[in-house]
Amino acid sequence: MGSIIGTFILRIMGWKITGQFPHEKKIIIIGAPHTSNWDFIIAMSAVMSLRLKFKFMMKKQAFFWPFSSFWKYLGGVPIDRSKKNDITIQMSEWFNSQDNAYLGLTPEGTRSKVLGFKKGYLRIAYASKVPVFLVGIDAEKKEVALDRIWPLSNDIKKDNDDIKAYFDKTYRGIRPEFG
Fold first, then answer.
1. Edge-to-edge strands of the sheet including 55-59?
2. What pTM does this model have?
3. Which of 13, 47, 104, 114 is deepest in the core (most CB within 10 A)?
4. Has domain 2-178 been given CATH number 3.40.1130.10?
5. How many CB atoms neighbour CB 73 within 10 A?
6. What ranges do the domains of the chain cover?
7. Phi-psi region of 5 (alpha: psi -120 to 50; beta: other; left: phi over 0)
8. How far apart are CA 173 and CA 11, in angstroms?
9. 50-67 pLDDT, tens per residue?
10. Hey, is 87 helix, strand or coil?
């Protein structure tokens, strides 16, 4: 039923999914650019359409009644962003305890304009030894692009800068002034 709803929402909004999801048991999925609240609706519709079961981290302040149960049902994990190192450890332990695990993140960490991506997704990827899969929100083409697994170099700063540059060159967000 969820795939029908997700596909329906994408269709009425004029969006489509391109590319293929990788055949990996564990993966970190980063979606960018994150410039609008609509990104979440489009991304969750794509997730439902593809029948993916995944977790996403979200600031704990969003987990209030009556939305807390809804976010958890969708895969939300409340995160206390004041304890940055604990998040990497917690998520690495979570990955290591799972046979199959997908974690979705927005590397900007906000819808506001940022110069660079936060590096937490890479810290988690390196600590957990899992690949990073890029998913682009392309507002010009109205596509959710299942792009590629990014080859990591063992240099977090270089990887982060290269991934940010790739997204900037390849995708345009819904509100590009925030990208």
1. 16-19, 143-150, 132-138, 26-32, 101-105, 55-59, 76-79
2. 0.87
3. 47
4. yes
5. 8
6. 2-178
7. alpha
8. 18
9. 998 888 888 889 899 999
10. helix
